[in-house]
Amino acid sequence: MTSVAEPSTPRKRSKWDQERDPELGSPPQPPVKRRQLSIHHADLSPPNASHWKRPAPSVFVPPRTHHPPLTSSRSVYSYEKLNSIEEGSYGVVFRARDKQTGDIVALKKLKLDEEKYGFPITALREINALIVCGHENVVGIREIVVGETLTQVFIVMDFIEHDLKSLLTLMPSPFLQSEIKTLMLQLLSACFPFNLLMNNRGTIKVADFGLARRYGDPIGVGGMTQLVVTLWYRAPEILLGAKTYSTAVDMWSVGCIFAELLLKEPLFQAKTEIELISMIFKLLGPPTNESWPEYSSLPLSKTITPPSPQPHQFRQKFPISAEEALQHPYFSSFPSAAAGERRRKPFNSPTAPARVAGDKLLTDVE
Amino acid sequence: MSVRPRFYPLASISQVQSTPSAQDGVPHEIEEDLRAYGCKLIHQAGILLKPQVAVATAQILLQRFFYVSSLKQFGVAEIGMGALYLSSKLEECPVRMRDLINVYDLLLQRAAHTVASGSSPHQSSEFKYTPMSYFGNTFYDLKEALVVSEMQILKRLGFDVQVVLPYGTLVNYMRLLGLTNHNEAVSMAWGYLNDALQTPVYALYAVPTVVSAAILLTTRRLGISLPSNPENCWWKLFDVDWEDLWSASGRINRLYRERTTAERVEIIGLLSKKDLRQWLDGRVK
Predict the structure, then answer these.
(1) Which of A14, A268, A328, B22 fits a 20 to 30 Å CA distance from A227?
(2) CA–CA separation, B24 and B34 (whole Å)
(3) Distance CA B120, CA B223 (A)
């Protein structure tokens, strides 16, 4: 160490002292000057006089007060239950009103009746993903409220007027090309945050994607209810027992939804997994070494016999990424919403209150 | 595409000034040491079970928890157990309930043994672990406590259990300060961060403040000088407020204060809410 040699020289102002503008990239001199130690103690008072303007603090390091305080869950009785919206394998969804603010929200009750291992890890993932993910294409989570016993847990979310599924059934004619384009763009951009979360985790169950996908944008792209969790949107590699998979399965689902928007009905309406696989191969052609090199290494690929090769092989390179998809000429070509495509027949979208009352949907179900 | 960052929660000023335990009459030092001991148990259990990331997260959750709940209502041992179980799920390395319960049973038996041998641990018999009987109630009692405390942690923290760990930040800051080649400083700062998990600082200050506190303590201890005059203070680089930095360092340093054997044994005797309540009643009389 050079600490012995230094003290004889007159005190050289360090690089930091000279620079008006602290350059973050340049590392300071190795700090070995012992004599500064005594100054330390005199220095304990907060330094206030600064000659130059410091840059504003980073948005990632806000003052302490910008962090939310520790808050316990409120009781579910802070909300007034209005009507139930739907019931799925994951629990029941209610429409409710916040008694304090009067806001209309969606209350999703988690099913926690027979949990052998405490709070389910899937529900934890879902809640964490929603809390962390403040994306405009993802439904906002307001809070988690609890009932009287420890098994009653409700997720409070922004209420969204439509879900795509019922909208598709109610609409007299399919979406216009331009409308589909905007919906698809939002869907694709909504994919990123989820995929990041998913990638970190390694192996994830399909239900997670379903849940992640379920919450759509404000006009309800992702609000496809529990149907997303069903078989129809599941990618072939999962069907064939892949232990690890990537963002590609998400893109598969997005593609299925894309087709559904165009067709006005789900693309692969299969009842069983084997039926789904055969429908996929029928539409896209059987897997070949060029179109899908990993196919033969999948656990279940030996158990099925794909149909013999067909003249049309739709699938080229598989899969396309969300970024690539967003660059696709489809989104920059005519017809676009900006070009002012018009509907031939005006269609009154089911107004929010009508859907809100839930009669249409509920009578459908009942 | 707009992403609004959402920050992890920290205790508010009022939560710090009057903790729920303090409102229940638990003296400040006792609360501080009990929290630390609860974290120590998590650490020991973590070493036996090996979910390393989960340990840090669990300790932070325990510290947060006792800013919204009183030690009179929840024992540190059971909350620690619940926190470790919960964070093993959060960090995607779930531990088996049975393993966790066995480990805590061992740790609690050892704690009880320490208390029983009292203030003269040198003459006492050696600790011998008796495994719980297969058909006994111990397992089911502990399992019930585990599930309840996991749920209570979630509920009382409003299910916001995001935790940001400081280690990556430390590496960046040390690099920026040109200290990465100073092996002793690096490992000491890392050690301070780990020890700080037994103090409430992670529930009180943002990660940059805690990391800066570890650097401050390290550089003072090793006599390394960093720019600290009014115009140029190194912590300003990290947008850290001096007041926060100084008090976070103080809180970490308090962990190392001398305690007598009697004081240590007293703390270990208060791990359950029942024991703490008895002790509080005894003080009133």
Answers:
(1) A328
(2) 15
(3) 39
Give the C-alpha separation, A159 to A164, whole Å. 14
Amino acid identity of residue B135, one-letter, is: F
What beta strand segments (E) does chain A contain? 79-88, 91-98, 104-110, 141-146, 153-158
- Residue contact A14–B3, C-beta within 8 A: no
Chain-chain contact of A61 with B238 (C-beta, under 8 angstroms):
yes
- Taking a C-beta distance cutoff of 8 angstroms, is the pair A258, A184 a contact? yes
Nearest to B206 among A39, A61, A153 (CB): A61
Show residues of chain A in contact with B67, CB under 8 Å: 70
Backbone angles phi, psi at B19, to 5 degrees: -75, 155
pLDDT digits (tens, 9 = 90+) for A302-360: 777 666 655 555 555 555 676 777 777 777 766 554 444 554 444 444 444 333 333 33
Is-above-0.80 flag for pTM? no
Pair A182, A242 in one domain: yes
B6 inside 8 A of chain A by CB: yes
Nearest CB among A40, A73, A134 relative to B3 is that of A134
- Check if the beta carbon of residue B142 is closer than 8 Å to that of residue B105: yes
CATH of the domain at A115: 3.30.200.20
- List Cα–Cα distances, B40 to B33, B34, B227, in angstroms: 10, 10, 35
Residue type, B134: Y
The pLDDT confidence band at residue A244, using thresholds 50, 70 and 90, is low
pLDDT value for A297: 76
B134-145 per-position pLDDT tens digit: 878 889 999 999
Q: Crossing angle of helices B261-268/B28-49, nearest 10°?
A: 70
How many structural domains is chain A composed of? 2
pLDDT computed for residue B284 by the predictor: 78
CB proximity list for A98: less than 8 A, separation 6 or greater: A78, A79, A104, A105
Sign of the torsion angle spanned by Cα atoms A191, A195, A196, A198: positive
**Tokens representing residue A2 in the block:** 């050079």
Give contacts of B225 with chain A, Cβ < 8 Å: 31-34, 36-37, 40
Tell me the CATH class for B20-162+258-278.
mainly alpha
Q: What is the ipTM of this complex?
A: 0.84
